[in-house]
Amino acid sequence: MPSLTRQITLSPDTYTAIATGVAQCRIAPIGVGAFRLHVGSAQPAPGTPDHVAARIEPLCLTNLARADIVYARAETEPVVIAVLTGSGGALELAGYDALDDMLKVKSVQKKMRDSFTRPLADLWQVTAADGASATIAGGTLTIASGTTAGAVVELLSKDSFTIPFRAMAGVVNTRHANNHQILEAVSIDALTGLPDGKHCFGIDIGGAASTTATLMRYFSQNGGLTPLESATVTILTTASASILEIEPFSDEAYVHSRALDATSGRANSYVRHQQIPDPSALYKLRLRSLNHAAWKAVTGAVAGTGGVIRLAVAAHGLATGNLVWVEYLNGVSNAGAELRGNFTVTVIDANQIDLQGTVFAGAYIAGSGRVALAAAPTAVSLQMSFINCQDYAELTAEITAGRGQIVEGQAIAARTVAGSVVTATAVGPVAHDGARGSTAPVIVAARAVTAAYASVASGDVADLITTVQGVQVVRPWQIPELEWSSAAAAGGITNTTDVVLGAAAGAGLRRFVTALQLKNAGTVATEVVLKDGSTVIWRGHLGASMTLSESHQFADPLRTTANTALNVACITTGAQVYVNAQGFIAP
């Protein structure tokens, strides 16, 4: 295998550990091959004297200076590099951070947005021919087709992206039967940065796909085959500004449309599982306008008369001298150059054409290539208010649940419902007034009430209660609607007849007494009793001619039996007793 040079960058703490003998830098080949080693402040060239060879045995370094950089160059095998403690434990490995005691993984994440407020050349490589053009004005990109058959405009992004990513654009377009308007992601050669014709995913909203503003086609390609194009599908109208999206993942690829500057979700989504682009390739965005008719598939390519490139295109319907656009022809080149662009044809028969001025080279790969006849449209335009691309972190796990779809089957225990809010309810194992099970119920809220609910049986689950404003009601306080108070009668109680402080509360309900205030203004002392109906539940004594009231607070409220009146009475005639009481009603 080719030689591999690796640089070890050691932290200051590690240098100190090596210099003091606490740690060693150990370098060893993975296999049996030799490698060379250098320690210094600059990388040496192979073959220089200080580019010392080492063999199978591991090499341990001590007394490294802080400025030293360690280089290991494998002759036939990669090398393993580690810094070890004196006891043999690992102190530093590739990606290991000793301060945080963790392995750190860095990933690449790219974000690109063009709101078309700066020159196109800042972010795009622009190609235009035969009167077609791409211009910016007022924050809007306009790609104008012109009216010349075969005219082409292409914008290729300077930024590249990796799958998964999402690209979206705000689009307005006019349509004519002889024009393609294409938004796509295309794979590129990692060295040249140019499209390699191997993988793509995109949408064709031009008139050659459909002249209706609510229709488009989407396509995907893998391995250089002819892009697999859909039938026409419905989208939001592009006669006014709408959002179009392409979103390739490693397992499936999506296209979407949605309203611009609206809170609504995606209105149309379509998925491709067949022939989706390779997730390991590198991609750029490409915008295109082509003045050509509908695509026709190439089924073969050989050397024709005089060594020109001869294409097999079933029922091509072309005439000699026609101009056609050729692309995605895999394995065949024009004398070593990429076979892509406009070519004049010579018709051989109903199913074969020669590309004039070409030189056949290579070997055609079955299933690749497509052509389109150059045709003159009326002037049409594609306008964009913005385009952006979010390259998800390369090492981030993909979440494949739903992806904005309105159907089930794409989620891990998830369902997306279109046009409505999904409400999830937390449910405990026991309902109100149900018998308690082996597991306690999940209580997510209390019950707001203005009247008592029916009593539950002993041992059943009961609701916490609050006021209608959510203030929790706890003993001895009750909801305001069930609190009561009784004011003393004018002139006080002067006989031994029962006086009603509170009538019977109703079936299943009791009166509770939380506070009592008493005063005897008469010249005769007396006992005072509170009665549950006729049964005394509290007794007190009031002296004669009291100047101050006597107050009682019941931490444990007095209570009547269910549906029974609460009464008060004096035991002695001749007293003048004033009684005020407060409490609440509850079961």
Task: Name some characteristics of this structure.
587 residues, mainly beta, eight-stranded antiparallel sheet, 1% helix, 44% strand, rod-shaped
Count of runs of 4 or more consecutive helical residues: 1
Principal-axis shape equals rod-shaped
Biggest sheet overview: 9 strands, antiparallel
Rg on CA atoms, Å: 43 Å
Structural class label: mainly beta
Distance between the termini: 88 Å
Number of strands: 47
**Average pLDDT for all residues:** 81
Poorly predicted segments: 1-6, 28-35, 49-59, 74-99, 394-398, 406-413
Percentage of residues in DSSP E strands: 35-45%
**Approximately how much helix is present in the residues?**
under 10%
Give a written overview of the molecule.
The structure is a single chain. Residues 1-6, 28-35, 49-59, 74-99, 394-398 and 406-413 have low confidence and may be disordered. Strand 33 (341-349) and strand 34 (352-355) form a beta hairpin. The protein has 587 residues and is mainly β. The strands form 10 sheets. Strands 12, 15, 16, 18, 19, 20, 21, 22 and 26 form a 9-stranded antiparallel beta sheet that branches. Strands 11, 13, 14, 17, 23, 24, 25 and 37 form an 8-stranded antiparallel beta sheet that branches. Strands 27-36-30-33-34-29-28 form a 7-stranded antiparallel beta sheet, with no helix packed on it. The chain has 1 helix and 47 strands.
Fold blueprint:
Elements: E1 4-8, H1 12-19, E2 23-29, E3 35-40, E4 52-54, E5 59-61, E6 69-74, E7 79-85, E8 90-92, E9 96-97, E10 102-103, E11 111-114, E12 124-129, E13 133-137, E14 140-144, E15 152-157, E16 161-162, E17 165-173, E18 180-188, E19 195-204, E20 215-221, E21 228-229, E22 233-234, E23 242-248, E24 253-259, E25 268-272, E26 282-290, E27 292-297, E28 300-303, E29 309-312, E30 323-327, E31 332-334, E32 337-338, E33 341-349, E34 352-355, E35 360-362, E36 370-374, E37 381-391, E38 447-448, E39 465-466, E40 483-486, E41 499-502, E42 510-520, E43 526-532, E44 535-542, E45 550-559, E46 566-570, E47 577-586
Parallel strand pairs: 38-39
Antiparallel strand pairs: 1-6, 2-5, 2-7, 3-4, 3-6, 7-8, 9-10, 11-37, 12-15, 13-14, 14-37, 15-26, 16-26, 17-23, 17-37, 18-19, 18-26, 19-20, 20-21, 20-22, 23-24, 24-25, 27-36, 28-29, 29-34, 30-33, 30-36, 31-32, 31-35, 33-34, 40-47, 41-46, 42-45, 42-47, 43-44, 43-46
